[in-house]
């Protein structure tokens, strides 16, 4: 009876992926995950920049609306001071005209005094000049009612009946002796003055702030280009402003291109101030991020292709060598399996456990026939678990002596086994493998 080692017998080999794919696929997945994470970060940062531009457009609209309200408020305070003039109360129109002319006022503006029938004083005309009547200026009942109700009001954009230029008028109600409305005191602001108010706060190139009256007619613009103030808004922008009745920002089409629009509506004047930014400028951070992501992606694709080519070239010979080695190993396993199963010699394998004990790994068919033991009865068990006590003690002593000697041990053994007592049986015990602190016989 001979003890030999046959590692790897009675096992099957699982087919694995090609070595080159086992290298390329995980690396490609890692690079792809890093690229997607970086792309998401760049895109999120770009959208935040675009959102910041939208918020700045809204802030500029708020600032422009506040500046316009301050101008109207200053005109209102000036009118209230003039309304208390003694010469006005006395009815001395000549003296009040002279006072209006001498009163400091914004450049390009002038004063008008009205009674309920029309203009009676206008400082851009000499005293005594015939002035338009209320009937000649057309229906203005809505404007009169607003002034009567509020006391101080600003008109929509109108063509001045005397100056014949687009103007906005700030009206103050004047009461008679009975407390009813007797007339108006007005300061007229020209387009140039309103433009100057908006241009006090510079904007980035391409940006523009515009003030619209209650009818969404443009009054003033911060754009310095000649003729920059349109006579009316594009229909699409007009519809968008009517739909977005609250303050905020949105994107609209103005007929020439998309605009990012910041909107602020004044509770004082009921006018609307908008700051417009070409959407191409507002979206520039996102477009730059997309270009950067595309460039990085193309570079990674090119670099990945080159790396894959190099890996295939380098790993290919290794894979071929590994395949040849595996083929030789399978042939060797087949030869050992044939020897294990077909030989007439009794063979079995014993492993030395980490605790110093001995465990049967298996036995071949010849040994099964000779001893009456079966592979299933002893595999994975100690001698004490599968042999009679005397036989277990005997083989354990032999195994331990061989382990201590470190070389082959030949001896005669007679064991009381299920197949019958062995007589004159010669055993060869050989320590053939030592790995991970374990010995096999």
UniProtKB/TrEMBL annotation:
Superkingdom of origin organism: Bacteria
Pfam families attached to this UniProt entry: PAS_4 (PF08448)
InterPro entries linked to this entry: PAS, PAS-like_dom_sf, PAS_4
Entry keyword set: Membrane, Transmembrane, Transmembrane helix
TM spans (from-to): 21-44
Residue span, PAS fold-4 domain: 350-431
Gene3D superfamilies hit by this protein: PAS domain
Protein name as annotated: PAS fold-4 domain-containing protein
């Amino acid at each position: 009876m001979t003890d030999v080692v046959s590692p790897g017998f009675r096992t099957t080999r699982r087919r694995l992926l090609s070595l080159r794919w086992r290298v390329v696929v995980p690396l490609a997945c890692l690079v792809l995950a890093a690229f997607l994470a970086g792309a998401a970060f760049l895109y999120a940062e770009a959208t935040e920049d675009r959102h910041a531009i939208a918020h700045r457009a809204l802030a500029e609209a708020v600032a422009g609306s506040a500046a316009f309200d301050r101008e109207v408020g200053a005109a209102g305070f000036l009118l209230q001071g003039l309304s208390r003039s003694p010469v006005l109360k006395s009815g001395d129109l000549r003296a009040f005209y002279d006072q209006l002319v001498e009163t400091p006022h914004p450049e390009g503006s002038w004063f008008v005094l009205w009674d309920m029938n029309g203009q009676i004083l206008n400082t851009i005309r000499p005293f005594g000049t015939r002035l338009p009547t209320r009937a000649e200026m057309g229906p203005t009942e809505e404007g009169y009612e607003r002034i009567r109700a509020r006391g101080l009001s600003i008109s929509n954009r109108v063509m001045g009946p005397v100056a014949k230029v687009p103007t906005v008028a700030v009206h103050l109600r004047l009461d008679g002796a009975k407390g009813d409305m007797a007339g108006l005191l007005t300061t007229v602001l020209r387009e140039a003055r309103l433009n100057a108010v908006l241009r006090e706060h510079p904007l980035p190139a391409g940006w523009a702030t515009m003030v619209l009256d209650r009818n969404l007619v443009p009054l003033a613009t911060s754009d310095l280009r000649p003729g920059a103030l349109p006579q009316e808004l594009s229909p699409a922008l007009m519809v968008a402003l009517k739909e977005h009745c609250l303050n905020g920002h949105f994107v609209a089409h103005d007929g020439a291109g998309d605009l990012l629009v910041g909107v602020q509506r004044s509770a004082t004047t009921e006018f609307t101030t908008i700051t417009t930014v070409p959407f191409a400028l507002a979206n520039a951070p996102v477009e730059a991020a997309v270009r950067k992501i595309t460039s990085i992606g193309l570079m990674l694709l090119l670099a990945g292709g080159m790396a894959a080519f190099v890996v295939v070239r380098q790993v290919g010979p290794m894979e071929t060598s590994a395949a040849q080695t595996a083929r030789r190993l399978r042939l060797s396993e087949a030869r050992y399996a044939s020897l294990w199963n077909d030989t007439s010699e009794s063979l079995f394998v014993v492993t030395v456990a980490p605790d110093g004990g001995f465990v049967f790994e298996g036995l071949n068919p010849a040994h099964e026939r000779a001893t009456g033991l079966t592979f299933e009865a002893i595999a994975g068990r100690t001698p004490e678990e599968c042999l009679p006590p005397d036989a277990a003690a005997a083989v354990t002593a032999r195994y331990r002596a061989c382990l201590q000697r470190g070389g082959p041990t030949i001896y005669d053994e007679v064991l009381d086994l299920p197949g019958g007592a062995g007589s004159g049986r010669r055993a060869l015990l050989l320590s053939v493998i030592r790995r991970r602190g374990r010995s096999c016989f």
